[in-house]
């Protein structure tokens, strides 16, 4: 197979991978019922968020990841109510946030601004850019160290390394962050599924574009680097926002 044919095949595989990685609207069953998550930056240790309705009160199920705290509510039980009221308590003081009608999705996310005592639908500004940038930088650092250990020294090789990883790992992390999968029990499966496409794309791209070493070393590097990224990514799920 000529170099031109290899390049064409790589472009086709990469395009197909990106198409299948990005989500489409669908209805399906899940391990969890439809949910609403209230996201809080740097929540105090004693922060409590309770859903208030005419019939019952629901304490948010809490989980923390780095600087973010997540409070989960079963919005399946909230669909029949008009306004959403949440009682927020911290440091012995309480206030109530009322949220009117808004567009529902299967997993809704709201952000609580404690200083302004205000709830808004969706994530806080630039969250996706911040989280994806952190994840991408960590991946580039890990795979860059492995790249050096495999004996790559040419500047051109490092430029190609950066270009390939920014495309593949950037697309993977953008896709993962688009899933609204905070506190989702299947996030590890999503990561593994996405990495399959990254494995395939990079194991084709490195032998095509890098000629510093034999193609067998390029393929071996791509496999080892992505395996390390997969293991590290699984570990980062418990440490970093997703």
Describe this structure in words.
There is one protein chain. The protein has 242 residues and is of the alpha+beta class. The radius of gyration is 22 Å and the shape is elongated. It folds into two domains: 3-25 and 126-236, no CATH class; 35-121, Immunoglobulin-like (Sandwich). The longest helix has 23 residues, at 127-149. It has a five-stranded mixed β-sheet with strand order 4-5-1-8-9, with no helix packed on it. Strands 3-2-6-7 form a four-stranded antiparallel β-sheet, with no helix packed on it. 45% of the residues lie in helices and 21% in strands. It starts with a helix and ends in a 6-residue tail after the last helix. It is built from five helices and nine strands. Helix 2 packs antiparallel against helix 3, helix 3 packs antiparallel against helix 4 (187-209) and helix 4 packs antiparallel against helix 5 (215-236). It has helices at 3-21, 127-149, 155-177, 187-209, 215-236; strands spanning 35-41, 48-52, 57-59, 61-65, 68-73, 84-90, 93-99, 107-113, 118-121.
